[in-house]
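Q: Convert this sequence to structure tokens.
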Amino acid sequence: DEGGGGGGGGGGGSKLGSLGTAKARNRFDFQGVVAELAWVMAEYKFSIPAHFTMVIRSLGALEGTVIKVDPEFKVVARAYPHVVAQLIRDRSPQMRSILSSLILTPEGKVRWARLGRLLQPAE
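A:
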């Protein structure tokens, strides 16, 4: 699933990539990420643990405060290189599994486009 370009026009199937998700993906700010997460949670009827919700609220407050000083600042874009570095450095089985699922197909082939996007600096 390389995500991105194709469909999104209204027919059946998954709506991921349509509606507000493309806008959220292009914004690359925390509010956009939270909007995408909220949509996915509603669409697929799942919830997240309370402690994770607290982290989300804290990051939202941080971004809101920073934007008052610098309206162009993007928390997600600034955190992205650190998150990717941690994902690559962490040797725990859980992180290895996450990394593998991001860059490998179920057949074990490399998703080159996705790997390239993962390694590009956030804008």
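Residues 50-69 form the longest helix (20 residues).
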